[in-house]
Amino acid sequence: MTIATACTAGLNAVGYAADEIRAGRLDAVLVTATDATITECAMASFCRAGLVSLNNADPTHASRPFDVRRDGGVLGEGACCFLIEDLEGARRRGARVRAEVLGFGTSGTGHGLDPAVSTPRGMAAAMREALASANCSPAQLQYVGCHGVSDPHLDVWETQAMKLALGDDAYRIPMSSAKAQIGIPQNAGGALQLAAAIQAINHGILPATLNHEEPDPACDLDYIPGTPRRNQVTRALVLAHGFNGSDAAVIVGEAGPP
C-alpha cells in the first residue's frame, strides 16, 4: 500500500500499520517513508510558493525553526524504515524492541480562508486524538518532536496548536525540530522525526533545534535551542503537517514489561 499525504505520509503509514496489527489483520508491517524531490520543477514550485529560505549566502544556517530570523525552509531528501509488529510476537523471536506505538491521530482540516485559525485546529485535533487513543495525558509526555519547517507563519501556527492540544504542559515539555539538520524531506519528514524521538527514548538525549539563536516571541515554548539535552523520556509525541492541509500525530513510549 502507498500512502501519499505529503509530510504526514510517514506518520500516517505508522498509524495505519499499528491499527491493522491491533485489529488482528496483520502480524507485522514494514513501514518505509521516502522522498527524493530535489528537482528543478520541485525547487521552482517551492520558491514560487514562498516556502524556502533565500539565505543563500549562509546555507548551513538557512533553516532555523522557531527563530525570529527564519525566512523559509530548505528542501531535503531522505528515507526511514520501521518494522512494526505485535509486541509479544517481537519478544518471542528475541527482537530488540526500541519503542511501542501507543497512539495515533490524524486530521484533514485544511487551510481554509483563515489559516491562522484553521491550521492550528487541525494540528491540535490530530494531537488530541493521538493522546486519547494512547490513554495518555499531556502531563505524561517528556518530549515532543515538532514539524518545525522554519516557515515564518507555520512555526507560529504550530506553537499555537501545541498550546491548544497540550494546555499549560506545552510550556513544560521540551520540543525540537530535526529539519534544521535534514531540511524538509516531505514524505519522509515525520518518520525521521519519529526515529529521533525513539532514539531519545532509548538514549535519554533530546535532539536540539539547530540555528535557534534568537527566539521568536510568538514561538515561546522550550524548543531545545542549540545543543542536545539529557533527559529521561518514557513517552513522546511527534507531529507532522502537510502543505495539503493534513496533520498526523504519533505517540510512542518505552515498551512495557513482558
Describe the structure.
Helix 1 packs across helix 7 (189-203) and helix 4 (115-133) crosses helix 5 (154-166). With 258 residues, this protein is an alpha/beta fold. 31% of the residues lie in helices and 18% in strands. 50% of the residues are buried. The longest helix is centred in the middle third of the chain and has 19 residues, at 115-133.
Condensed summary:
The protein is α/β, with parallel strands linked by helices.
Topology:
Elements lengths: L8 H14 L5 E8 L4 H9 L29 E8 L1 H6 L7 E8 L7 H19 L9 E3 L8 H13 L8 E2 L2 H4 L6 H15 L1 E2 L22 E2 L4 E7 L5 E7 L5
Parallel strand pairs: 4-5, 4-8
Antiparallel strand pairs: 1-2, 3-9, 6-7, 8-9
Helix pairs in contact: 1-7, 4-5
Rg over alpha carbons: 17 Å
Multimer state:
single chain
Tell me, rounded to a whole number, the average pLDDT.
93
Largest sheet: 5 strands, mixed
Strand element count? 9
CATH H-level superfamily title: Thiolase/Chalcone synthase
